[in-house]
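Q&A log
Question type: sequence-to-structure
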Amino acid sequence: MAKEQTYIMQEAACNAVDYLRRAARANDLTKTQMARSAGVSTPTLDRRFEDGDLRLSQFLKLAAAAGVKPSDAIKLCDDAVATYNQRAEALASKEEKNEAPAATGASGS
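Response status: OK
Response body:
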């Protein structure tokens, strides 16, 4: 489940970062302008966009430069996190059900 969590959280982060990238481009910001607003070099920004992983301060600066609310980008993460939490709860519930009959059977002997 830990690998799935890592994947889901990374996917959610990528979606939020991609939202900022698209918003910045829609507002005619060049990569150089985006990088400057985030306080990094253009090659570093390219890597961060590719990885989908920005520092929070860079994320906020880029959102401001793109003219969007950071919360709009973060909302894209909500569904992914909710899906993960539902799966984790379902798995925990299933594991509890699988353990319960074994415990009951052992005490009934």
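Response note: The radius of gyration is 21 Å.
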